[in-house]
Fold this sequence. Notes:
Distance between the termini: 18 Å
Radius of gyration: 22 Å
Number of helices: 17
Number of strands: 2
Helix content: over 70%
Strand order of the largest sheet: 1-2
Amino acid sequence: MVVMSQRTSTPTALTPASSPSLTDLAAGATPNRNRAVDFYRAVAMVAVALGHWMAIAVSANPDGGFSAGNALEQAAGLSWISWVFQVMPLFFVVGGFSSAMSLDAHNAKAGRPQDWVAARIRRMVAPAIVLAMTWLALIVTGYLSGLGAIIAAGATAAAIPLWFLSNYTIDTAIAPYVLPRFRRNPVRFAATGAGAFVFFEMLNFAGVPILPHVNWILGWLLFQVAGFAWRDGLLPTGRRMAMVAAVFWGAALAAVTVGPYPTSMVNIPGLHLSPTNPPTIALMLFGAAYSATAIAAAPAISSWLTRNTKAWAATVAANTIAMSVYLWHFTAASVAGAAFYLLGWLPTAEVGTTDWWIQKMPLLAASAVVLAGIVALVARYEQRALLAERTTWDGSEASMVAVALVVSACFKLWVMGNIVGILIATATLTVLWFRRVKA
């Protein structure tokens, strides 16, 4: 999330006088700021929403019912969508860049690690709590009114974006400890991490249970470390980075053509060697290619945003609602899909055909309209968390990391889709927020 200035004073509430406007935030950027980082963060959240909406295959059945699934599962030829919209590796790279920049400013003022982690966790969890409380209320109401199964299905769909937050929460919690260790010997650190990743991937091929899931953490952490390296100026630039990107693109294509990996870069139910469950070498190569391309283009994008004040202001504004867009886009799609079902407007053509895409366009537009309405209602909570002054954490480093792990576990439990797990996850998040995390 965008952080236009570093502040360390500690009032307990945000007052209008202390809250900068979007104009202030845009104007406050330093001339040497890497504005492409902010641009990529905002674009990534929109890309995730659009990619998910395109992959949703909800259709009307001849018997009057409807079916819902993943278009990539039903039409393998649509796997190309994932090569455009799988932006999570880049998002973790951008997150690593921002974390390194923020930690440097925090450490320069002798700040405590737990205070930095607490500030970051609050910014991530604040908009997620609104989602959790909303679905907790809907689930309870649904079961009391006899609509529990339908509401539970909606809650499961709404949680799909949370898999990213689960991993990102862990990476954020350990960033103050990973960054200095990386800087002691960047090459050795990265090589050791990559070697460990390959080792656990080989265990996965060998059918070893449980252990390969270490790559859930290690894979995304390596992208964060790439962001550290970008921030520290350790990566190639210009044509050299473009050449690096080309090499990674070639390796990624080889992994899914000559190699054993599927073409899709997102998880599909029943997919052998799922690229994200846990991350595979194919995803790492693809993510490296995608990120290297973005890093090569970053100077040009930053220069454009410096010259074009309107585009920069729009980028800043988008960053203040990015997490709300990300968290609520599946809920918006569910609402739009339900409305189209009741109106008899769901697509009826075969998934992946030209007619299906034509019939799907109104549903995409409706999802965007619903999402805009939801974001207009809930974005204030994200913005308050972003603009709020930092407050100290009234506990040890270990206690802050423990809270982060519980938050991550709740996100993961919610994603699993079991109704009991959803109730436990949403209730725990709500209690934890008000009793421990909220400043």
